[in-house]
Each structure stands twice: as C-alpha cells, then as structure tokens.
From TrEMBL:
<dbReference type="GO" id="GO:0016787">
    <property type="term" value="F:hydrolase activity"/>
</dbReference>
<protein>
    <submittedName>
        <fullName>Amidohydrolase 2</fullName>
    </submittedName>
</protein>
<dbReference type="Pfam" id="PF04909">
    <property type="entry name" value="Amidohydro_2"/>
</dbReference>
<dbReference type="InterPro" id="IPR032466">
    <property type="entry name" value="Metal_Hydrolase"/>
</dbReference>
<dbReference type="InterPro" id="IPR052358">
    <property type="entry name" value="Aro_Compnd_Degr_Hydrolases"/>
</dbReference>
<feature type="domain" description="Amidohydrolase-related">
    <location>
        <begin position="7"/>
        <end position="263"/>
    </location>
</feature>
<dbReference type="InterPro" id="IPR006680">
    <property type="entry name" value="Amidohydro-rel"/>
</dbReference>
<keyword id="KW-0378">Hydrolase</keyword>
Length: 264
C-alpha cells in the first residue's frame, strides 16, 4: 500500500462570472479556480481529487468539465436534468465525470420512479457511474430505497449528516451502514469541520469503520469551505481526518480505496 497516496474526494471549484442558480443558498463573491485548488492540493501533499458539483450553479457544469479535461488528476460529479440523454452522459464520462449529484437538502424529494429519473439511474448504472447524494439524515433512508431498484452505485455525502444527539442510533447513520453492507453505497467522511466539536465526526468515523470497514469510506476536505471561509484550511481538514482515525494505515486504506473507486 502506498502510504503517501492521498485523495480528496470532495471539493468545489468555480471561475469568474459564472451564473448562480436562482435558489443558491450562498453566492461567494470570489472565484475558487482549478489552478488555486491544485496549488492547495500540492501544498497539502494530495495527489488526486474529485470535484463535487456545487448546487450554487445548478446544471452549469461547464467550468468543472473543462477542468476535468485539462487535469487528469481530477474527477468530478455534475448536476443534470433527469431528461439528459445517453450521448451527453457518455461524453461526460469520457471527460472525467464519474457521477451525478443529487443536492436534496431542504428540497422536496423528486419521484425517483418517474420516467426521467428511472432512465437516468439506469443509464448511470450502465455507464458505471454513481449517484452522489446530499440529504438530511432523517430522509436518507427514503432516498436510498428510491435508488435501490436501478442498482446504481450511491456515494453519500458528509457522513450522511447523522444527528449528534442520537449518535449511532441515528436512523440516517443506520441506513447508510445498511446500504454499505448491502454493497450499494459508500460514505464520504467530509464536512466534519462544520461540527464545532471534533469528537462528533470522530465518533461517527470510527463507528463507520467498525461497522463497514475502510472499503466503503472516502475522505474529503469540502474546500473552499463555503460559508466558513477563513475558519479552516485544507491542511487542517487533513489533520482532523487524522484525529478521527489516528491509525495511519487505516487512513491510507481509505485513500487507496478512493483512488480505486474514482480513478481505476
């Protein structure tokens, strides 16, 4: 195992003068370019990364796709309309797009059984792409159940946002564990810096390892930390990961697993 291999599976990039989605929850007044992010990765000793589609820009994936074309150390997810066709998905796949993100936080859940979503999920399955889910913990089980019939792979954002007060009894945490054990899902240990008490992500990171092992886990920084700019650095998110899981071999296994999933 290459102990030096590191993969950041969750970050966002954007350029100048990009069109914000009309319902964007935040509108940063600064660009976070791919060049800036790559410099950050180099400074942190991270070789590979995955760009997560930012809900701030809706289906405007242009900047990310161009970055993936240019930089082979990157992969990415996109946000698309359910009616997207096979040829466009195939072209995105060739450019380095590995999945479609469902940004479902504080939104009504779509009908996953309707024709558009049903086709989309089956096409993603056929292309060996995945559905990248961001949803509150108390609604995660319903989303996972809705995705089950297609057989598409699922990557769950930000620990699955488990309820700290409920701990490992949180239904969202349990749903994520069940999906991982069924071989349908993976979980990103990301966004933990948003918890003021780092013992909370530590608890859940260790609980995931105990229940599903390292093979179903990834790590992500969530750079550039939208909404918490200046309160954390990329290097600090790596240090937090080390606090959650002090065993370096365990962290190395998670990085290697991410590389195999996204880049193999």
């Amino acid at each position: 195992m290459n102990a030096e291999l590191r993969v950041d599976t969750h970050a966002h990039i954007w350029g100048d003068a990009m069109p914000f989605w009309s319902k964007a929850w935040n509108r940063p007044a600064y660009p976070y370019t791919v060049e800036t992010y790559l410099e950050t990765l180099d400074a942190s000793g991270v070789e590979f990364a995955v760009i997560a589609a930012a809900s701030l820009f809706g289906t405007y994936n242009d900047y990310v796709i161009r970055a993936l074309r240019q930089h082979k150390r990157l992969r990415g997810t996109v946000i698309v309309d359910p009616e997207i066709g096979l040829y466009e998905l195939e072209a995105m796949r060739r450019d380095g797009v590995v999945g479609v993100r469902l940004q479902l936080f504080h939104t009504d859940l779509p009908d996953f059984a309707d024709d558009g979503h049903n086709r989309l999920f089956h096409r993603l399955r056929d292309l060996d792409m995945h559905v990248h889910v961001n949803i509150e913990a108390h609604r995660l089980a319903a989303v996972l159940e809705g995705l089950r019939p297609s057989g598409v792979k699922v990557v769950i954002d930000h620990f699955g946002w488990p309820d700290a007060e409920k701990g490992v009894d949180c239904p969202g945490f349990q749903a994520a564990v069940d999906a991982c054990r069924d071989g349908r899902a993976w979980v990103k240990l990301s966004g933990g810096f948003r918890r003021p008490d780092q013992d909370i992500p530590r608890l859940f990171a260790q609980a995931y390892v105990e229940r599903v092992g390292t093979d179903r886990l990834f790590w992500g920084s969530d750079a550039p930390f939208v909404g918490m700019e200046g309160k954390v650095t990329h290097r600090q998110t790596l240090d937090q990961f080390a606090y959650w899981l002090p065993d370096p071999d365990m962290r190395a296994a998670i990085h290697l697993n991410a590389h195999d999933f996204y880049f193999a």
